[in-house]
Amino acid sequence: MQIRYDPEADILLLLLRDLPPMDSIAEPGGIIVSYGEDGEPVSIELLNASKKQWMKPGLVNIPVLLTA
Prior knowledge:
Order of helices and strands: EEEEE
Shape: globular
Helix content: under 10%
Structural class: mainly beta
């Protein structure tokens, strides 16, 4: 998974799989989920990320839970 932030567009992008999107659905709250040909999600876009405090400019803190 890759995480990208575009400060000019204020979009936080979560790339789940390295496949081209075939379809997308805009969810309430400024969230766009893109799906691959197999119907599974390939990316999630969070619009207005800093305004909704999903992304704080200058600070990135992503907790990761590892399972055995």
